[in-house]
Amino acid sequence: MSNLVTHNPAALQALMSETIFINGAETVMSQVDGGEVMATPQEALADAEEFVYTGDKSTGILFILRYPSYPYFSPQAEEAFVKTIGALKLTLANVAVVNLANAQNPNDFKRIMTFFEPKKITLLGVEPASLNLPAIGHNAYMKGRVATVFNTFSFEEMFADVEKKKLFWNEFKTFISS
Question: pTM value?
Fold first, then answer.
């Protein structure tokens, strides 16, 4: 019998044949096809709450998108995104990007706010109504108690219409700098 050690909730869910129990001590155990999966209670609880995202959520800058065909962006959109945020001294490493098309990511704005604790949120082609937010025009933002939400087009929409790209850039610079 071998011990499997994982912190990935999807892997745990796929491999588990029994319920995980927290025994109050230092490990969480579950039978997995004759082996055991071990994690600390804190890791098990944290993994159960996590979103699949890239970057760093501690900076307070969050980009929300919905790209069903890609983990985050199409190659062309990623290149444009990196250049865009780079012009404002940001990188993929110091912002958080979450793709709501990933089945593991809840499409729930309250959970997004709780997990990421953002101060600035940019919706890239995600309609505010899909997150139960009030209407926000394109290239406009709404200030909330905790965060400001900027609603704009997806990069694919901006590729197709240069005017949309210009409108985005002018407002986005102001939004990030404020």
Answer: 0.73
